[in-house]
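User: quick one - fold this with zinc ion bound?
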Amino acid sequence: MSSELVIHGGTVLTMESGTQPIANGAVGIRNGLIAVVGAAAEVLATMPGAPRLDAGGGLILPGFVNAHTHLAMTLLRGFADDLTLREWLEQHIWPAERRLMSAQTVALGTRLAAAESLRAGVTTVCDMYFFGTTVGDVLADIGLRALVSEGILDYPTPAADSPEAALRLSRELLERFRHHPLIRPAVAPHAPYSVSAARLASAAELAEEFEAPLMIHLAETRQEVEQLLRDKGLSPAAYLADLGILSERTIAAHCVHISPDDLALLRELEVGVATNPVSNLKLGSGIAPLPQMLAAGLRVGFGTDGAASNNTLDPLRDAQLASLLYKGVTGDPTVLPARKLIELLTVGGAGVLGLADRIGSLTPGKEADILCLDVNGPHATPLVDPFAHLAYAARASDVRHVVVRGRPLLQDRTLTTIDLDGVLAAARALAAGARPGSH
Ligand SMILES: [Zn+2]
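Assistant: Sure. Structure tokens for the protein plus zinc ion:
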């Protein structure tokens, strides 16, 4: 039996290059794939008996891609703020994770993150955390598309008492999800400064064996660059390239302190970049050369990073802030124009994750990952240019429906596969018992 759905009653932005918005358009979905896109009358005539989802006069576009995050860190939202990365990580976050994070709490934090993500129009997340198999199971159950991974560090993690154990868990994760329709397993060595050269090489070999993505933090702070230059005589990007671990399957998060030579190197090796402007600003890490990355021809998408450093999982907010930030610091308001910004949130992010052939645009044959945005609020009226609306006026709370692989996961702002009240209550209860000094 085939399952069908028609999303109609709105302006369709396919995000295919060179296309115009389709006023009063519709998207027909069959068996999780986009079957037809066009004028509503034609689409509805093609699929007369299909169930319908009404966009209520709003915008219909590809779901947003969060190209770098740590989902379960929602449980550490507001836990430690106004600190530098090193102090935040080593004195607050890592000890808290060791105390708090188990398979059970990671499952809870991931559910909370999935709820927040769906409400923000996100249909694909790229997660770097621990207990990756649990994360994959939870997200598969919810129906959210994801890259999932098992964080590898030189130190014990909440899930692995040694780097060897983390590599073993990574292999299990790769084997478990290698053919899953929604969950794509990846390998995740934490960063060049926190994983030894030998283990970085092991991680890269594992990714190679499974042809899996490899995600890593890269050149996030000036301190990291100085340390690598001192210890290895190379920039972080050159060091990783030297080790042979960078490829078109690499997702490099941050790349804040990166030279023109490094950018050329990343371009040559076809590395994808997840830029995280809110997290970088909040931690005082700096401002990534995003316009230069785009000019160099790099694949770039937006990531939120974790909710302990952002403190939300709302990539639209990251994109909107980036647009204003780069216009301001360059003195050039033509930098990151509205349509480009929305491309980075959709097709751009899909490209960074190696999913450009499956998601990112509303193209027949691609998977039906779609969001509908309400445009009836006073802050949204009148609407002239849909791209400018998304870039400068829309809010995550305007997201009305979200469909992943043809399945409505958010309908009229209600989550269909997550018991939100239960998740919120459990997260509050856990936080109340987990504050420093409470036990
Ligand atoms: Zn991160």
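One thing worth noting: The chain has 15 helices and 17 strands.
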